[in-house]
Amino acid sequence: MPKEELLHVRFEHKEALQSKRDFLTSQMYLLKMAGIMENYNILRDEEFKTKLRVCRRLKELKTAITKLQKTLPNPEIPDNLKKEKEKEEKIEYKSKKGSNYIPDVEEQLREIEKRLNRLQR
Questions:
Q1: Which residue from 9, 11, 83, 111 could staple onto 16, CB 3.0 to 4.6 Å apart?
Q2: E strand or H helix at 105
Q3: Can you tell me whether residue 76 is helix, strand or coil?
Q4: d(Cα 87, Cα 17) in Å, to the nearest integer?
Q5: What is the pLDDT along the chain (121 residues), one digit of tens a residue?
Q6: What ranges in 7-104 are assigned the alpha helix state H?
Q7: Dmax (CA) of the chain
Q8: What are phi and psi of 73, to 5 degrees?
C-alpha cells in the first residue's frame, strides 16, 4: 500500500474565526430557509383544503339550484313578447359588439333591473 501524503493547511486566528462565523451564518440561513419551506408547505396544504371545501360547496349549490329550477314552474311568455325581447337583445348586442365595450357596474345594475321588471310583468 502506498503511504498517503498528508497535507496541512494553516489558518491565522482571524481567518479561522471568520470561517467559523461564515459556517455558522450559513447554517443559520439554511435553518431559516427550512422553516420558511415548512411554513410554505403548511400554507399550501391549507389552501388545497380550502379549495376542496369551496369546490364541494359550489357543487352542492349547483345541485340545489337545479332542484329549485325543476320544482319552479316555467312561465309561458307569449310569442309577441318573445319577439320583442329578441329584438331588444339584438339591438343591444349590435351596439356593444362594435367596440371593445366593458360595461361599468351601474350599467350592469340598470340592465339587471330591466330584466327584473320584465320578469315581474
A1: 11
A2: helix 105-120
A3: coil
A4: 85
A5: 567 787 877 888 899 899 899 999 999 999 999 999 999 999 999 999 999 999 999 999 999 999 998 898 877 777 777 777 777 777 665 555 555 556 677 777 788 888 777 777 6
A6: 13-71, 79-97
A7: 107
A8: -75, 150
Residue 111 near residue 103, CB atoms below 8 Å: yes
* Cell (9 digits) for 17: 474565526
CA angle 87, 90, 95 (to 5 degrees): 125
C-alpha cell at 28: 443559520
Cell numbers found for residue 66: 337545479
Tell me the whole-structure pTM to 2 decimals: 0.46
**Cβ–Cβ < 8 Å for 49, 41:** no
Are 17 and 9 within 8 A, CB to CB? no
